[in-house]
Design brief:
145 residues; alpha/beta
Length: 145
């Protein structure tokens, strides 16, 4: 996307269909959002720390994180991410199919700012992403660093 984008979102998601739907939902909104996606926690940490192919990666304003991924799952990512000085204030919202109470509790205990269960219905999924965008990127005041 162009440099006109006001907000940067890092989507940590291994399912291509969910990546596509999330991008579509952001695109349908009026607010310009630059969505970057990586398939797992290992790649997300590299992106955030600007390592390897991500040397020019922008700092995200919001991280959307799936829990169930290969190599490094969402909980392991959260644990490592929250130890990164200077980055740990970026809000992380869990976006997952899991409805397990233990996943919800663990996510909040590890520092997640929110937990959303992915709706199965496409229209509901898009509405959820647009509500998320409105809340986190328009209403909430975030720390600059």
């Amino acid at each position: 996307m162009s440099e006109k984008c006001k907000f940067v979102v890092l989507l940590v998601e291994d399912e291509p269909a969910d990546v596509h739907l999330t991008r579509l939902a952001f695109k349908e909104g009026r607010l310009l959002v630059d969505v970057h996606d990586v398939p797992d926690g290992v790649e997300a940490l590299a992106f955030l720390q600007r390592e390897g192919q991500y040397q020019d990666a922008p700092r995200p304003d919001l991280i959307l994180l799936d829990l169930n991924m290969p190599r490094m799952d969402g909980k392991a990512f959260l644990q490592r991410f929250k130890a990164l000085e200077g980055l740990r204030r970026i809000p992380v919202v869990i976006l997952t199919t899991s409805e397990a109470e233990s996943d919800i509790v663990d996510s909040y205990d590890l520092g997640a700012a929110g937990f959303i269960v992915k709706p199965v219905d496409i229209d509901q999924f898009i509405a959820s992403i647009q509500s998320l965008k409105e809340y986190w990127l328009t209403l909430v005041r975030r720390a600059d660093s």
